[in-house]
């Protein structure tokens, strides 16, 4: 097996601590499918990356009238071992908040299209899961955006008011005053916004999509087969995909590697940044369900755009807690280690302790004991479950692909006819892939990207690439200010939430890591 830990070539690292979702699928035959099977010499289409984007793209190709005869899927590690199998378990469309950043980067019309598309994705996933009777813990439920500071309340109000002016926001309920803590059960809530969303087991959904693709015939999956390069083939109108286990030719190659995409596509270096994120598995609330009834909604608990925690209580009443990548007092070295980091083999202790402590304080009646957080984290460092009554079981990390303009790259790669990309989902792929991947399949089969359903801001074009590279060069050549600029730093490190808020009382506020749309 060939793995490269060089940051200049962001290939996956060997698997370490597994996510809660991966632990639930260990007996699935798809986990290591094809690892010992010989590679074919050629295929009509090769897809690199077996996460949800790759899986849905494969299924969309194979169920098309003009489908390719053969599709080969290559995966460096186990199937669905990247962000699709290691996230926090949400399908949470952005109902309003991203408008501020999207409109500044892409214009108001595109901003509204992006928000609209996310609602469409939620409906597509809901329909898909129900149509195919997929068992993946799919739980439609209200989601609450809980404002825990005056600053974030003002930020949310601005975005909400702008969206209401342009299309109305009938699906969003606003909880002010006493209604906020009463409805959300978060005593510190100053305001809350509520809209429809869902939680799920993303690995089980991904495996189900692969199974449906296999049923179509002509589809083969090869795990533990990292692609190391894609080069021109001696055969006209085809590419040579070189792997650790040999090479094969393909007329068309699809890069569905998200955070790792620049390892094989150097033109995307600096435009898709692998960024480390983390989640935690909590036990059923120690206080018991009589004292702490089930949380029927999912949550984003936000002090600031960069400082937030996601919450999803599973059907078995355990809780998955998405951690923050920025908070007051966060060690600078830790903060700086998150970007350009492909090491998802182990979680970060300080991040685990911060998230567990914060959640315990916000939901004190749940009975979680944060006073023993340090000792518990020590026990869980190897990935084994803690054997005490604190309620913290284990943590894991994952790598998300962050783009400099907040949206993914979809389409045929400029200057490389026959190579395509679906990557850079900014930690928000569950609210984007079910629209982007079918569109990508149609593009591969010859449809113009302008005729697909995706927001045109997602299209990978020469103009977009040049503009983004110019922005990076201008930023790099600018003098470094004594206090980091909220615009330049947020554009590079907090794209989904970028906004001028120069006086935020948060030590990481101007220089904080990415805030995904959880």
TrEMBL record:
Record-linked InterPro entries: FAD-dep_OxRdtase (IPR006076), FAD/NAD-bd_sf (IPR036188)
GO cellular component: cytoplasm
Source organism, top-level taxon: Eukaryota
UniProt-listed SUPFAM superfamilies: FAD/NAD(P)-binding domain
Chain coiled-coil ranges: none
Position of the signal peptide: none
Domain FAD dependent oxidoreductase: 44-442
PANTHER family to which the protein is assigned, alphabetical: FAD DEPENDENT OXIDOREDUCTASE DOMAIN-CONTAINING PROTEIN, SARCOSINE DEHYDROGENASE-RELATED
Record's protein name: FAD dependent oxidoreductase domain-containing protein
Taxonomy of the source species: Eukaryota, Fungi, Dikarya, Basidiomycota, Agaricomycotina
